[in-house]
Amino acid sequence: MRTYQTLKAAILAASVSALVLSSTGSSFAQELGIDEAASETASELPAWPQEAADTSQHTSDGPLTAEQSRAARAGTMPTLKPGEYGTDRDNQNNRGTNTPDYDMDTYLYNTSTKSPIEFDVILPSGSTGRSGTLRLDVYDVDVAQGEVDIVYVNNVRVGTLNGRDSTWGVNIFTIAPGILRAGRNTVKVDIDTKNPKRGTWAVTINWGIIALAGGSANVAGINRCWVTPTTIKAGQPVNFFAELAETVSQVKVIVAGRTIYLTDPDGDKVWSTAWVPPVALKGRTYAFSMQAIKSGRLISTCPTLKITP
Question: Whole-model pTM above 0.90?
Answer without folding.
Answer: no
